Structure formats: C-alpha cells, structure tokens
Amino acid sequence: MTEDIDINHSTAAAPEAIAAEPGRARRSSWLIGAGVLIAAAIAGGVIMSQSGTPKLSVVPRSQVAALKVTLPPQAAQKFAADAQACTIPLAEVQIWHDPGAPDAVVTLQSGSYVSPPFALTATPEIIAVPFPAAYAVGSGQLVVHGNATAMNISLSPTKVLTNVTGAASVNVVWNTTNPCP
Question: Does residue 157 have a cis bond before it (omega within 30 degrees)?
Fold first, then answer.
C-alpha cells in the first residue's frame, strides 16, 4: 500500500498569515523563548549539581598491586584481579587529618563494602575502595565511620569533614567512560 504525500502543502502557517495575526507571532516567539529558557535552566541545574559534587578517581592499573594491601585480605585478590582485568574498577581516595588534630581510626563504607580500619594521621594515605554503585551509574555515597576531627578526603575537590562523630556521608560522582582505555 502506498500513500501519496503532497510535499508542497504544509500545515504550518505561512509568514504572511502570521503577519496578519500579530498576536500569534508574539505568542510563538514567547513560547519558543520560554522553552529555550526552561531547557537551559534544567541543563544548568544538572551541570551545577554535578560540578559541586566531589569526584572519585579510578585506581590506575599500575597502582592496583600497591593498593591491594588497603583492601580486606579475604577480598583483596578478587578486587585486584577485577581491577587489573578492567571488569570492575576500584576508586582511590586519600585520607588524613589536619596537623594538630588528634589521630583517629576510621573505616570507609562504599555501597555495601566496608573497609578495614585505617589510622587517620596528618600524613595522607591512599586507599582503594570499590565504587559505591555500579561503575556505569556514575554517582553514589561514601560514608566515614568513626570519630575524627578535621578529616580530609582527597576527592576532586578535597572534602573536609570538620567533626565526624559516628558517621558522615559524602555524595560522590565519577566519570563513567572506560577506566582502561
């Protein structure tokens, strides 16, 4: 079955018809302008919310073996093998406290994963953790458990947790492109 289409006929109003109805031209322009502004506001809101959220980085394959010691012994081999094979990447963070703050012990929760305890000192320590959600999701939450003062977590930008009493959450994002190009 074929259908004949008249390509010379248009349902859109001709410019002279719009000119004959000045209110119609103003309404059309206003609607188009409003649509553009709404689209820009939505896009700007997404960009603004993502730009202010700290970003996690992937552990480079060259560093996986060195950071394996920061993972729980019973799971370290599997996490490291998956990261080396680029099937499930690991994230890296540095943790420390400001000079003069008391040392503390903290754990990091990333999704359902909970790290071993880490001694928080004034010297930054790089640790590996799984991403808090499936890598393709691109966002999640890290939770610091413990009691710490002036704690820093090196993300981009660095997040300072003034006082951690029990638990403190940090929303994070990450780039979902291939971690092993």
Answer: yes
Closest CA to 131 of 167, 77, 174: 174
Burial of 148 (0-12, 13-18, 19+ CB in 10 A): buried
The dihedral of CA 48, 154, 145, 174: what is its sign? positive
- In the chain, the amino acid numbered 6 is D
From the CB of residue 21, how many other CB atoms can be counted at a distance below 10 Å?
12
DSSP E strands in the chain: the ranges are 57-58, 90-97, 104-110, 113-114, 118-120, 125-130, 139-154, 159-173
Question: What is the pLDDT at residue 73?
Answer: 94
Distance CA 52, CA 140 (A): 14
Q: How far apart are CA 55 and CA 33, in angstroms?
A: 34
What pLDDT sits at residue 22? 55
pTM (two decimals): 0.70
Tell me: the pLDDT tens digits for 91-126? 999 999 999 999 999 999 999 999 999 999 999 999
* Residue pair 95/120 in contact by the 8 Å Cβ criterion: yes
